[in-house]
Design brief:
two-stranded antiparallel sheet; binds S-adenosylmethionine; about 325 residues; 10 strands; about 30% helix; alpha/beta; Rossmann fold; eight-stranded mixed β-sheet
Length: about 325
């Protein structure tokens, strides 16, 4: 089963690799997928040639943070409005390939973006998965990047207008949380969910191992990076958060699939917790960083897992 793929991250397009995995072989899907918000090259999943979105607007020149984001310069064209649907179609192309690989009744955690998660959910539902819950990953802090309207107006020489708009801003509220869609592959054997768990060893939650200071876990996940965690990928997730979801839903030796590995956080967490992993990453640089990160990991016994979940640590370690 899964020979040649187990405990490796293959470099390349996951759409080509996924069909090669054996059916009904994956215990948990856990992936932080591209978001469809043009965050970086790997996140441009549409054919829109609008100049602002592709980074050639005068306001975007020389600004790395917004090289591909931003709003159209001449109002919203139909091509801008198609981006959401194109992203959903892209998600559907691989969600359909993932479906047969998952065990009956298994779980899937999909990290996405607040603006586009509804598209991911549609694509997954259309390919047979059931949405179980939408979890919120709450970050310790978030930058508030909202431009002051009065300053923009002053730059245009509109002093009276600038006074009128004092205190108003363009943009969003500080983005303090990210969504994690939690799906289940419906079980197809006759009988109950318990019968399916006995048959396939998936579909339950290990609450006792995931209590925070004795309290039952909620669907609000509060995790930050520890001081030791090196930041390699702009969309990297805290190791503690990924470890937590793995511990919640799998046992040692079970197999976790992440087709969009980035810096390899899912693989690192899986190896640390004595689970198996299968991963893909298209970008050669992220791929080699992930492999280097993995080399340094020594698996630990369940009871020795560092307590990354303590609220005190969370408070201290802002992203
Ligand atoms: C959101 S990032 C994952 C970051 C990761 N959670 C971490 O902690 O580093 C998504 C990754 O998917 C990769 N990717 C995009 N399209 C891909 C494809 N078709 N096959 C494999 N990887 C892909 C991108 O290069 C990017 O590194």
């Amino acid at each position: 089963m899964n020979e040649g793929f187990l405990d490796t991250i293959k470099q390349g397009n996951c759409l080509e690799y996924l069909p090669l995995l054996p059916d009904n072989s994956i215990d948990l899907f856990l992936s932080d997928i591209p978001y469809g918000i043009s965050l970086d090259d790997w996140d441009v999943l549409h054919n829109n040639t609008n100049s602002a979105l592709l980074g050639t607007s005068p306001a975007q020149k020389g600004k790395s943070g917004f090289k591909r984001r931003g709003k159209p310069i001449n109002g919203w064209a139909q091509s801008d409005r198609n981006i959401g649907l194109e992203y959903q179609q892209w998600c559907a192309t691989w969600a359909g390939k993932v479906y047969p690989k998952m065990k009956s009744g298994s779980f899937l955690f999909v990290f996405g973006a607040r603006r586009t998660m509804h598209r991911v959910i549609n694509a997954f539902e259309d390919n047979g998965f059931l949405l179980k819950d939408t979890l919120a990953w709450k970050k310790p802090s978030a930058h508030h990047r909202a431009q002051r309207l009065s300053i923009i107006l002053e730059r245009r020489g509109l002093k009276d207008e600038a006074k009128k708009w004092q205190g108003w801003r363009l943009g969003n509220l500080a983005p303090i949380w990210e969504p994690v869609a939690w799906f289940m592959k419906p079980y197809t054997i006759g009988g109950t969910i318990t019968d399916n768990i006995l048959e396939n060893q998936v579909g339950a939650m290990n609450i006792d191992e995931c209590r925070l200071n004795g309290t039952s876990p909620t669907n609000l996940l509060e995790f930050g990076f520890t001081k030791e965690e090196k930041r390699i990928h702009e969309a990297q997730k805290p190791l503690g958060l990924i470890e937590y979801l793995i511990k919640l839903t799998t046992k040692e030796e079970q197999v976790i699939l992440d087709p969009f590995m980035g810096s390899g956080t899912t693989a690192v967490a899986a190896k640390m917790l004595r689970r198996h992993f299968i991963g893909f990453e298209i970008n050669p640089e992220y791929h080699s960083s992930a492999l280097k990160r993995l080399e340094q990991i020594v698996p630990v016994k369940s009871r020795e897992i560092p307590l990354l979940l303590q609220p005190t640590l969370f408070a201290k370690n802002a992203c």
